[in-house]
Amino acid sequence: MRRVSRIAVASVATAALAVTVSACGSSSSSKSAGGGDKNLGLALAYDVGGKGDQSFNDAATAGMDKADQEFGYKSTAVEPQDGESDADKVQRLETLAKQGYNPVIGVGFAYAPAVKAAAAKFPKTTFGIVDDNQIKASNVTDLVFHEEQASYLAGVAAAKTTKTNTVGFIGGVDVPLIHKFEAGFKQGVADTKKGVTVKSQYLTQTAQEGGFSSPDKGENAANGQIDAGADVVYAAAGLSGQGVIKAASEHKIWAIGVDSDQYKQDALAKYKASILTSAMKDVSGAVFNLAKSVKDGKPQTGEVRASLATGGVSLSDSNPVFKDNADLQAAIKKAEEGIKSGSITVKDS
């Protein structure tokens, strides 16, 4: 369900601008949106699933909130709408740039065409896009990650934990980005324990079909894999991953979360005992760092790719069962060192 809240406004003129934004997508922020030369802060245009996905979009929100706290910004975030076109996304980004937000960040690869178009019209505004590195422009920053490296570690954890020698991978949408998660996970499993079967499934072929935003699809897929013997299931599926975690909890098997430390997510608290670990990527840090670079007058540009070596991807250790398993931790540490040194090259497809 989409989350919609009002944008607080200080004047009639500002209210008119806020209405322009909501024509393309409802704001999920209660912070003011204004125009003029002063930089109000950053603006996020959410990916499918929106705020409250306990994953990808919420990580971006955390980065925005940190920037607001440290810089005194009044940032904003805008929800996507079902069935929207690239033109709708372009209008959303252009409106945010006109209002005085800088940087303007598209959260997710689906924003690539819109970011490219809007950046060309607003050369003095810095635009960011998460999970796409195809845009080459002096005022665009591509915020990307070595997801396959964190997924490799998730594969190590799954292989060391499984008792049935069957584990599962559930991808939200069958696209190259999610193939990276699958490839790293499978390689980590294979390198750690021979004879472990990895069952893979994608929920949809396109994001429009709800692969990243349908917990029921995730739950059904997980139930199928569990029925087939999987006792550890890793999901790279955005909001749909909540259904995977629910199924794991109900069947008393392990789930591996993604993007954020899902063991700590309030909305998943009743399932957290079943969340072994999470393959994280620091979307929050990437968003904050881009905002800081703009504030410092030295905007990031080009590709900024995070890895295990930079601390931009990692495996969470909030679950004491995971953290206190010495054998498992030793295997993960060895894999981390191998990836960082280059002795282990992780496949991304």
Compact overview of the structure:
This protein is of the alpha/beta class.
Topology:
Elements: H1 12-22, E1 41-45, H2 56-71, E2 76-78, H3 86-99, E3 101-106, H4 112-121, E4 127-130, E5 140-145, H5 147-161, E6 166-173, H6 176-192, E7 197-204, H7 215-227, E8 232-236, H8 241-251, E9 254-259, E10 275-281, H9 283-295, E11 302-306, E12 313-315, H10 320-323, H11 326-341
Parallel strand pairs: 1-2, 1-3, 3-4, 4-5, 5-11, 6-7, 6-8, 8-9, 9-10
Antiparallel strand pairs: 10-12
Helix pairs in contact: 1-3, 2-9, 3-4, 5-6, 5-11, 7-8
Quickly list its features.
349 residues, alpha/beta, six-stranded parallel beta sheet, six-stranded mixed beta sheet, 40% helix, disordered N terminus
What do you see in this structure?
The chain is of the alpha/beta class and 349 residues long. 40% of the residues lie in helices and 19% in strands. It is built from eleven helices and twelve strands. It has a six-stranded parallel sheet with strand order 2-1-3-4-5-11, sandwiched between helices. Helix 2 (56-71) links the parallel strand 1 (41-45) and strand 2 (76-78). Helix 5 (147-161) packs parallel to helix 6. The longest helix has 17 residues, at 176-192. The protein is globular, with a radius of gyration of 20 Å. The two termini are 32 Å apart.
